[in-house]
Amino acid sequence: MSESRGSWGSKLGFILAASGSAIGLGNIVFFSGNAYKYGGGAFYVPYLVALFLIGIPVMILELGVGRMTRKSMPNALYKLSGVRGELAGWFGVLNASIITMYYIAILGWVMGMWVGSFGELWQSAEVAKFGLAEGTLSNSMSYFFNMISDINPLFYVAIVWVFNVLIILKGTKTIEPVVKVFVPLMWLMMIVLIVRGLTLENGLQGIFYLFTPDFSVMSDYEVWKGAFSQMFFTLSLGFGIMTAYASYLPKKSDDVQNATTISLMNCSFEYIAGLAIFSLLFAFAIVPKTSTISMMFFVVPEGIARFPVMVQTFGLLFFTLLLMAGLTSSVSLVEAVVLSIIDKFKIARKKVIAGVFCVGILGSLMFALPQVIDKGLANDGTLGFTLLDLFDHWAFGYGLLLCGLLEVIILGWLYDIDKLLAFINETARYKLGTKFKILVRFILPLVILAILGVSVYNEYDGGMYGWNWFEEGTCKNLYCYVFFGWIAFSVGGTVVLTLIKRRNQSEDPA
Amino acid sequence: MRYALCFMIVFLCLFSGPLRAADELVLEKDFATVGEPIAITYEAENSKELLLQVTYRPNSETEKREKPRSFEEGGRLMWTPTEPGLATLTVMNKGGESLASLEIGVCFSETPAWGIIVMVLAGLLLFGGAGFSLVIALKGHS
């Protein structure tokens, strides 16, 4: 294997690719959902604290590790702290690959809605398939259910996978031109949606509603947990993406500068997405549901359907925006997996992409198949595609935070953090000092542990869909099966991939 | 697959309930405003036995509920909102069963100072910071 690893053509290319990775479906709908749930403006205080306390610091670490080792996450951590590091790295990558599979399944549904937004989605829907009279469901809802009961989403999923493969085919050479077009377009489209939202009757009241704080919720730990979790997820931390992307950077890049730029761009996008969505929600008095999926497929389209003019145009704009945001994120997820395999086994890029495509598309198709609808649907708006929800519960809710925890423990305790900081400071305009070291070694692990602790407590307290093995004491439901499936794939796969001998022994830790 | 469709039918029926019933609950205006009374009408034979439950910020951690109030003769009721934002109005019978519901936006009575402060500060911090660091990054400092 003598292929060149490649590098970013420009600094702008890297910043757009990394911010494009961070800006995904979650930024557009998940943030607004959380802001509504946790008291509007009051959510901004813990959110901003989380940005500076956890978001930017962890991103600096991930970028620094990638640039220092010029390797993807498992191989970078192996180089810094041996087999323990590699185990943590592969766990992160395999966990991310599960998320990639269902993320692309959701993107397949987005594509289905995009196709529908050319006309059918906004017309009076036929819901006879479900035995309901016409007009008993909102158009978006009935269109969505009709769509997913059909075979079409499987084709959409395949198309999204093909797009992903084409974009990453030649690494940075193909990723960079795509993000240079997509990311500015995403900003432009979002600005058009804000202008539309603000020109609706009382659209501005929605903005006031988003930002006016209800300080009574500030003492609620759930608000803080929500903000800190949101920050971890929104910046694509724990996936190994930032390390993979940074491994393509020139040696002289400024990690502190890059991390700050990417994080602030990502959060600015969430800010404007909040403006667009809240003006829409208020103008049409639509109560957001807790599920990101219902916000994306029902709530916002329902608002767009009530626009007095140009419904089709704005609908198309919204789903195009979702598709672009989703693609720039999924591409980075797939690239992180591909690069990890290339770095360790020195297999040709095209062969690795072919392998990841075959496994990935099978997984995505499994998630795209219509699943049994859950009983929670009636009240909380959860779609309840059980399998997807459960994998998301474990891989996204726990996996990412676990990866983040392992990452800071390895870098803060098992590796000499001073060496990494010295490396970052060599090219940084703003130097990192003792306070940053304390943050990495003590505060970050404690904060992540606290979030995980609260999640485990809630697990014990509630479970999911009425399933809770702590009460039942047995594992005879899908909730447990999926947990063990997740563990078998990510932990089992981690052990196997770590045990297989690497092709280049000269990369062993010093 | 057949089971999945059966489940869908059941839960879509559950979902469709409030939408269908919401047509019967009528408000004097499209938007309410904090402190300004607004007339609510629900036409039913036994309207005096029905209650109106107002929920502010439904589905959120800051959800607040007003004490249920009875309708007057002719299914009319004057309601004065106390909280801005989204609210759900639910008509219930004495047994607590929901008969109809409607979502409404409640406007602020005056421009909220805290809202403007948070919006400007967060905007300045995020956009100002992003713009500033992007310009420096692209200048090629290393």
Provide the descriptors you would attach to this structure in a database record.
heterodimer; A: 510 residues; globular; B: 142 residues; alpha+beta; six-stranded mixed beta sheet; three-stranded antiparallel beta sheet
State the gist of this model.
The complex is a heterodimer of chains A (510) and B (142). Chain A is an all-alpha fold.
Question: Can you walk through the features of this model?
Answer:
- The complex is a heterodimer of chains A (510) and B (142).
- Chain A has 20 helices and no strands.
- With 510 residues, chain A is an all-alpha fold.
- The two termini of chain A are 24 Å apart.
- Chain B has 142 residues and is of the alpha+beta class.
- In chain B, 32% of the residues lie in helices and 30% in strands.
- Chain B is built from two helices and nine strands.
- In chain B, strands 2, 4, 5, 6, 8 and 9 form a six-stranded mixed β-sheet that branches. A three-stranded antiparallel β-sheet of chain B has the order 1-3-7, with no helix packed on it.
- In chain B, β4 and β5 form a beta hairpin.
- Chain B is elongated, with a radius of gyration of 22 Å.
- At the A-B interface, α1, α3, α8, α11 and α15 of A face α1, β8, β9 and α2 of B.
